[in-house]
Write a structure and sequence with these properties.
The chain has 327 residues and is mainly α. Helices cover 47% and strands 2% of the residues. The protein binds protoporphyrin IX containing FE (HEM) and 2-acetamido-2-deoxy-beta-D-glucopyranose (2 copies). Belongs to the peroxidase family. Classical plant (class III) peroxidase subfamily. Belongs to the peroxidase family. Ascorbate peroxidase subfamily.
Amino acid sequence: MGLRGSDAVVLAIVLGLCMIPQGEAQLKYGFYRDTCPQAETIVMEEVTKGVHNDPDLAADFVRMHFHDCFVRGCDGSILINSTPGNTAEKDSPINNPSLEGYDIIDNAKTRLEAACKGVVSCADIIAFAARDSIVLSGGFGYAVPAGRRDGRVSRISETFTNLPPPTFNLTQLTQSFASKGLTQQEMVTLSGAHTLGKSHCTSISSRLYNFNSTASTDPSLDATYSAQLKHDCPQGSTDASLVVPIDPPSPTVFDSSYYTNLLVNRGLFESDQALMSSPVTAAQVRLFSYAEFIFKKRFAEAMVKMGHIGVLTGSVGEIRLNCRVVN
Ligand code: HEM
Ligand SMILES: *[C@@H]1O[C@H](CO)[C@@H](O)[C@H](O)[C@H]1NC(C)=O
Ligand SMILES: *[C@@H]1O[C@H](CO)[C@@H](O)[C@H](O)[C@H]1NC(C)=O
């Protein structure tokens, strides 16, 4: 007995629904259209104000979204304060003191609570702020699917096991991103976020002074650049606030120069330069270095995908009233 036409249509719809990737299905474009139509405008205004006062903050919001999503999913756990019994993600040496901008998220949240009480999650605020920061820096804008809910747990230990360190090689980076459902190509694309911002000298001191038993400085680093870095990051300096730009040619502009640097051995971290260590990833680096349009477009797509990692939706989790404390 064959299928009737109407059965076939129903079957096609059911199969079609099954094929929508799990994470993709849960967030929605225009999630706050009815419940808080001004949500994205409020976030955009506060981020714009913050970045206007301190252009370095754009990099922080992009990194904040990454560090939120890779640890327990994009659930706003990066924003939770430590308590007497628990040291939170934000107090990990990976995030503190380098990650800033929490006060700007608070400003947005305060206005959102006044406008639409208990509706807009802290996790969504971070996702919007990351997108707005990319746009303010010259990257492409993109629609952010929303509806993330906030988690209630934030543990320092999980930052060490989930965030890749700057010493990772290509295999390790690829594995780290694969464990979050991201491809190697997306890893190479998202690393392009290092077109923005700065690094503390502490993050590169081993590469400059303590590389391995035969070479104190990583010999794969361009010699002129390593001399410059050693000048800016003196060995044994006790000044923990010393920083260098990750993409010296244009640290506040979202462009392709991060990839151009890699072509001439000027990636700041071993994890950056590692993208040149296989033919496939090196080809992607070369493409992005001259095709800025393609880089910006792929970056926007990869950010949307990263924003789906481990999200809490529906009635799971909560809408935190203060992003720094669980309800
Ligand atoms: C691929 C693996 C990655 C590694 C190993 C890595 C590592 C690092 C390190 C060590 C720093 C410097 C922190 C400091 O000392 O101040 C940094 C900064 C930064 N990272 Fe990454 N990162 C990676 C991927 C990403 C991704 C996927 C994004 C976002 C999509 C991102 C965005 C940023 C930004 C914007 C900064 C500059 C922060 C600032 O100026 O305050 N990173 N990263
Ligand atoms: C990457 O690092 C891991 C762990 O140290 C090591 O086992 C592996 O051989 C390295 N891979 C490459 C391609 O260097
Ligand atoms: C030190 O690093 C260089 C450059 O990566 C490498 O050629 C050399 O084999 C390494 N030496 C040791 C002992 O690991």
